[in-house]
Amino acid sequence: MSFRFKPADVFETRHNAPSQADQQAMLQAVGAESVAQLIAETVPPAIRLSKGLALPPALTERQFLKRFKQIAGQNKVFKSYIGLGYHDTTLPPVIQRNILENPGWYTAYTPYQAEIAQGRLEALINYQTLIINLTGLPIANASLLDEATAAAEALHMLHSQTRKKNASKFFVSEQVLPQTIDVLRTRATPLGIELVVGDHRTADLSDEALFGAIVQYPGANGTIFDYQEFIDTAHQHDLFVVMAADLLALTLLTSPGELGADVCVGSSQRFGVPMGFGGPHAGFFSCKDQFKRVIPGRIIGQSVDAAGNKAYRMALQTREQHIRREKATSNICTAQVLLSVLAGMFAVYHGPKGIRQFAVNTHLFTQILEAELKGLGVEQLNANYFDTLSLRLESHELQQALKTEAEAAGLNFRYYEDTLVGISLHQNVEFDDVRDIVDVFAKVLGKEVATSTAPTVEAELTLSWPTSLQRTSEYLTHPVFNSHHAEHEMLRYMKHLENKDLSLAHSMIPLGSCTMKLNATAEMIPVTWPEIGQLHPFAPADQTLGYQQIIKDLQAWLCEVTGFAAVSLQPNSGAQGEYAGLLAIRGYHEGRGDTHRTVALIPASAHGTNPASAVMAGMQVIVVKSTEDGNIDVADLRAKAEQYADRLSCLMVTYPSTHGVYEETIIEICALIHQHGGRVYMDGANMNAQVGLTSPAAIGADVCHLNLHKTFCIPHGGGGPGVGPIGVVADLIPYLPGHAVVPVEGRNHGAVSAAPYGSASILPISYAYISMMGGDGITRATELAILNANYIKARLEEHYPVLYTGHQGRCAHEMILDCRHFKKAGIEVEDIAKRLMDYGFHAPTVSFPVAGTLMVEPTESESKQELDRFCEAMISIRKEIAEVEAGRADQKENVLKHAPHTAAVVLTEAWTRPYTREQAVYPLPYVRLAKFWPSVSRIDSAYGDRNLICSCTPMEEYADEAEQLVATDKGPSY
After folding, report:
1. Which helix (H) or strand (E) holds 359?
2. Reading across the β-sheet that carries 169-173, which strands appear in turn?
3. Predicted confidence (pLDDT) at residue 964 exceeds the cutoff of 60
4. How far is residue 186 CA from its own chain's centroid?
């Protein structure tokens, strides 16, 4: 007997789930002899790549982790005191292990199906309550992408709400963080808004062209300003005021709401979320009640379910921006859910006393540091500060000497162009850290440290700023922030919430266009390494060599995959990628003097974010019709391209189409746009059906955003984080985003995100995926995604009509199941979505892109066994619908209309429904083996919108609930 060497732990076989035997069985079901034949019948030959992807050979998990440790090891983890919105912090291990490293949390999808997402929704309610309490404003959303983009969203929202006709100026304090000013300028320019940057203390707010203003609290240099008079004056002149605030400082400072601010924005990064070289971090956004129907992003609200129980769901503007399309005030369609959950849990675990103590410690150490440095003769300029000192040295040479000595000691400070030095402390600072900083100054100044002033544990804190700015109002009084401070209690609380949520840990999530594929454990491991998490985004370049290699390699690999000349990793969501891509096109036209080219042609089937992004980029949206078979109407496109030829900026197109088909005319479509002087933007939402088979460049596109949280395996995290880098052809490279603080490859164009490389700390996930799959592996992933989709189509098309297919009857990586004809029997597509919960599945995408349909995408990561489970559930549901159609089940009192069924519902003593309890909760034998129980019945969203509650249940109601529980508890005591 002989054997040959072969790696035993090939990663591709773990990611690409169908075995060879399963592939053969599926091919037989779809009527193809081979995968190659299926692909040939699916992907138009004109766009097929002529050669394979030139990517490095695939590594095993063990090889990758060993190599990546070496790469990450090139990063130098210094103690960072740079500040500017990024601070060292500690995520409690109990939260790190049980949420950040737990697939039950990070593989869940956006909570559109609220009945199986109650855990995440409660965690987000906690987060919103944290923001509402600390900012002193009554409405908060479930997070935005970062502080800078939150400020930009405020700018856009307030511009749309001003009562001042033709007002187009926005005042920006020069003390606002530089990266925020950069993003504000980027966002303002296409909208025709002029930023007026200056000193808020001397600003003239009487200018009728002004509609709003933004100030920083504390300022970028660390100074605490009293903005009361500024806000009062602004309001007298009909200006809205935004305060960008430090969340930790707000535990000691009078809240923005109490000062009269209309909007408060900021970052919750220092609530336990690592700096991660810039992200991802949850930006927060709170505002006055008057803005609740125009606030960007998502709000989580409280409602009731069919049984009258409290339940949470996304409120008010859920998908509203998609619906409003070109009339939207924002293109944001996501949130930083996983990061806001972490920040909220940080507050739950530490409670109001704990987070206040972090603030006290931070400020106390800053006072001690000031005293020590003054003892050395160093001038400190901030009269009032929280955590940041602004220090003046005698010369530039002394400043450079300090920088050299500090970095030799492993310390990073902020150095200004003149002789100033900024030092921002944080909640991880200890006495020895203060001593190390003082020692560096003493050495550079050639002075001895006075031992008599050495800090001691007896030091007391006295707030130095005016009493009017000293916080007296309470916060985080709700029991959830005062009940889980022991680790056992915190562990059980998080597990309690996790058990309410369905994730990829339970079953496939077959969402069309959302590509819920495997987020492999080996890909996730480096995210929590200190070499990845503890770097400041503005750290000196020689300390970030590991990140530089990761970024350089990943950019090169994505260029190979897309066929483009360059890639920017800065956009930190798909919507940001869309926007950045359109700005590149806008910049190209302006660079040629074609400022009049502002028309964007967008197919009627496009994602709702497409027209919203186009409007934000200063473009006029012209809708292109679709044909009956779902494709772009080329005749209508040609007519409109000719009609607007002199003004044509671009075409936005999704490929394969949102209908799950490779349109045969795509090359002709792109050539037509180029013929009339326009550029082609390709939405990369469906890139999982392109990789290795075709590419955006091959079809003729000029720019494309990639959803790394879809095709390239960054997990959805319950609705974020995401990464949306853009690739461009050579002549668009100069118009990729730059950065005001850290030069990005010499580009001068404005930033679209706060950090130069966006959500840098999760780039290792995609880096790992490509490293371990290699070119052949990710190509086979695309092929198997197409096979899996066509297998589902073959199994379900006799039960549910499939709306669109290619000319040979094949779908791409997804398909649309038509459920509209069930309305005759009173069954809506929502009923099918809710009934799937009883079978243990999350619904496919509901009513997009066609109302009354389900869009299904299985991905390559699902085995034939899992696909069959899903198909059996869908077939069983079709039989249940048939019972209604035939009159054997009532149109209103049936198993679909009452879905989902909770344990409480089926365990009721009196069962009066016209179907059995077993039919309700165990509709197929396999469900018994691993039953997932929805925690609430069907939720009444309209009730929640009429009675908006977006924070933890008010204390009065909470007390009433507790009394009611006590009154009804008649059982024995133990």
Report:
1. helix 337-375
2. 139-140, 283-287, 263-267, 240-245, 210-217, 169-173, 194-198
3. no
4. 20
Sign of CA dihedral 47, 52, 58, 64: negative
**Residue type at position 826:** G
Cβ neighbors of 250 (< 8 A, separation 6 or more) are 134, 135, 256, 471
Q: Coil, strand or helix: which one is 260?
A: coil
CA 773, CA 58: separation in Å to the nearest integer?
5
Backbone phi and psi for residue 657, each to the nearest 5 degrees, phi listed first: -65, 165
The Cα–Cα gap between 852 and 836 comes to 16
AA identity, residue 508 = M
Residue 965 has pLDDT above 80, yes or no: no
Q: Which structure tokens are listed for 971?
A: 């059982």
pLDDT recorded at residue 323: 59
| pLDDT over threshold 90, residue 748 | no
Contact 364, 463 (CB under 8 A): no
Q: Give me the chain's average pLDDT, please.
A: 94
* pLDDT at residue 909 is higher than 50: yes
Listed in sequence order, the residues at least 6 apart from 182 whose beta carbon sits closer than 8 Å to its beta carbon are 148, 739, 740, 741, 750, 751
pTM (2 decimals)? 0.96
For the residues 33-38, what does the mean pLDDT come to?
98
Residue 420's SS3 state is strand
The distance of Cα 631 from the centroid of its chain, to the nearest Å, equals: 30
**Cα distance between residue 46 and residue 905, in whole Å:** 56
Tell whether the model's pLDDT for residue 505 goes beyond 90: yes
Query: Parallel, antiparallel, or unpaired: how do β-strands 648-654 and 411-412 relate?
Result: unpaired
HEC string of 883-914 equals HHHCCCCCCCCCCCCCCCCCHHHHCCCCCCCC
- What is the pLDDT, as a whole number, of residue 456? 55
* Contacts (Cβ under 8 Å, ≥6 apart) of 554: 567, 569, 763, 766, 767, 770
DSSP string, 486-541: SHHHHHHHHHHHHTTB--TTTS---BTTT------HHHHGGGGSHHHHS--TTS-G
Count, in order, helices (H) and strands (E) of the chain: 32, 26
d(C-alpha 548, C-alpha 971), whole Å: 63
* Location of structure tokens 């460049």: 697
Greatest pairwise CA separation for the chain in angstroms: 94
